[in-house]
Specification:
The complex is a heterodimer of chains A (520) and B (326). Chain A has 18 helices and 24 strands. By secondary structure, chain A is α/β, with parallel strands linked by helices. In chain A, helix 14 packs parallel to helix 15. The longest helix of chain A is centred in the middle third of the chain and has 16 residues. Chain B has a single domain, classed as ABC transporter involved in vitamin B12 uptake, BtuC. In chain B, 75% of the residues lie in helices and 2% in strands. Chain B starts with a helix and ends in a 7-residue tail after the last helix. The mean pLDDT of chain B is 91. The chains are: A alpha/beta (520), B mainly alpha (326). The interface between A and B is medium-sized, with 36 and 26 residues. The structure holds adenosine-5'-triphosphate and magnesium ion. The site of magnesium ion (MG) has 4 residues of chain A, from helix 1.
Amino acid sequence: MTPAIEMKGITKDFASTRVRANDHVDFSVEPGEVHALVGENGAGKTTLMSILYGLIKPDSGEIFIDSQKIRIDHPNDAIQHGIGMVHQHFKLVPSFTVAQNILLGMEPTQAGLLNQQQENELVAALAEKYNLPVDPTARVRDLPVGMQQRVEILKVLERKAKILILDEPTAVLTPQEVNELVTVIRGLSRLGYTVIFITHKLVEVMSVADRVSVMRGGKMIGTKKVSETSIPELARMMVGREVLLRVKKKEMQRGDVVLEARDISISDVNGLAAISHVSFQVHRGEIVGIAGVSGNGQTELVEAISGMNSLDGGEILFKGKIIDEASVGERRDMGMAHIPEDRMVVGLNLQTTLDENLIVSRYDDSQFSRYGFLLMKTISEFAEKVVRAFSIAAARPGEGIATLSGGNLQKVVVGRELSGDPAFIIANQPTRGLDVGSIEFVHKTLVEERDKGAGILLVSVELDEVMALSDRILVLYRGRIQGELDAATATEEEVGILMAGGNLQDLKYAQRADQQELRS
Amino acid sequence: MEGLFSVFTVELLNSGIRLATPILLAALGGAICNQAGVLNLALESKMLLGAFVGILAAYYLGNSYGGLLVAMVAGGLLGLLFAFLYHKYKVDLVILAIAFNLIIVELTVFVMRALFGNVGSWSDPSIVRIPDIEIPFIKDIPLLGPILSGYNIIVYFSWFAVIVMFIYLYRMPGGRHLRAVGENKSAAETVGINAILLQTLALVVSGALAALGGAFLSIGHLKLFTRNMSNGRGWIAIAAAMFGVNHPVGVFLASLFFGFADAFSVRVQNVTELPPNLVKLLPNVATLLVLIIIALRTKVALSMARRRFRAQLRAEEAAKPAEEPV
Ligand SMILES: Nc1ncnc2c1ncn2[C@@H]1O[C@H](COP(=O)(O)OP(=O)(O)OP(=O)(O)O)[C@@H](O)[C@H]1O
Ligand SMILES: [Mg+2]
């Protein structure tokens, strides 16, 4: 069979960062297959796909579609050749409706004027055809992420793409949305569409792809049939060494209570309860996991504990003291650390250097400044030390961090937050968008801190992560704690039913009913 | 007190509409730039340029309508220069605006002195003010007639521009693309929309409109150019664009508000004993209030929501019977 796409000897150097993002990469995709592309953060996956889509010009290499050599200089060329891309960060206009977004740039007109109703009908028909229901009149900014992604996919299909590139489509989705997406991808492949999808989650590769290609350090390491490989083998190919997929933990040494939330309530922007009468404790030496589908109050809870937002009811105690009035800085001085959810916006300043990012939380410490002046030499020595301790490979003290890959950026955040021996750590989605190697690193580091005696509040929408790291699991549902489980004995089923708003009683009844059915 | 009430007359409405016109034109220009994602803080200098070039061209051409056209072309060219420097050399638009706001004031004075040797202001008897036009039929409508009719062509054009801009932005593909560029440039570019072209268009149109607003001052309203004639109207236009949430109709209403505030203060000066310097501040106070309202709008909504939530929480607690110790 002639391949649908063939890329040969693709090389791309980024002069600004002195990185060879693609190094003589060969890549080919069969028509009608689902082809996964995996690799560490910064391996060059997005670069390769951007070249295919005409967003980046390669330094050398050739692209063939159905054995025809073609040039792709601009996304318009790619679209002409039936290639469509759903980007890692969505390319949607938030205040526009679904229909306006899908038809953007190709609106039908009558006498030069737009016709809203005709647009809505067109999009409704398109959604019907591919069995991807959407409301054409809804505004994109009001839609959940999974729905926005569906809009992106429809946008690509409307442009008559036969080859779909999905760049990390599942990174921002809830488990349920991931399942829906998998169904969509399978459906498209059955209709004869070719799908290339980039992911860090090897479980997804195994469940949806026909073949998988692995990249590392800009090079193509190899392509395998999914039926002939395994998750450990893929992880090894990605990272170049054996990877611990599940972190090893010692027996918990539980100490005193370090953080306590007493009946706290927090309002959302509309004056409704985001967090409602929540109480819990975190002890030293334990990891408490907060599980839950995103949007159930996690953000507000974390903002209140870290001091970024105030409480509306109840109180928070840190080391036995009420800290409701304490600022972020005061809480940090008392020994609180915070790995925020969004490293690009809250966690780091991408405009400045590694050094400044590493000391930004304690620049007025006597260690780093005197009489209002920064001690540059000490700071850069400190940066050096953190870079070594956390093996932030690509970062150099004194240089910018804007072009570091996701994994390395997260290492910078983790390095800053954990280098001061904190007593309590909030880790909010600490591994979002990271590759298996980086996840292993973050997990290992968090467990080490726990063993050193820090209390950790892990907030994550990844069920696996919560299950693997926590000692105790609290499930957050609509701003309340739906249930508490001992991580040693909890099953995914139990956590799952609590996350969906059910309770454990229901599960027991369901299981009993199953057994009775089996018996009869 | 009778003096104060006597200011509310048809003449007040007329002069409010006249005074709103330069602000409206510049504010429409500001709004289209905001919609396209290119902040235009140079409305002030574009107005001043229009005022100066407009009266000069009217003098040399011997035709004031010709002066208007030349002023618009000059403003458009300045917008084009901005777009070129911004897209080609990545010059920051705010810095460009500051630079031109400073340069144009001095440049107009310099050219005025070089040509005519005057110091503060210049005029010539040969210059004709743009004439007012009565619209047939409309002028005879009772009550509304005198309010809607009897202005010069620039005023009518500014109303026309509101309608055209509304249709373009909200009913035509080009305008929708322009708004897409302003809100998410890369989203627009990945579907093949030429963002640079649309942003350039916005800057050029904005320059032409602001310059026409300026020409209204020098040959539409008076027939005279004075140093720094725009006198902050470009900045008020920026406030009007924000106040009108960059929507042509909103901008129209916001500009009228500022125009009336201006006219009102002039009237009050004529009929009351209040210190004139204080009354002259009125439009500026109005602007300040509007800016504060704009800044507080979302903040207040948020804190109100929060206060409601806290009250509800307290009510809940009060309603709950005292808990029995277990
Ligand atoms: N525009 C750019 N300028 C300079 N360097 C870049 C640019 N884009 C990417 N790079 C560098 O090229 C390398 C490959 O980046 P790329 O985004 O392709 O990685 P990736 O495999 O998609 O990673 P991730 O899984 O984190 O998305 C990285 O080292 C990155 O820092
Ligand atoms: Mg990527």
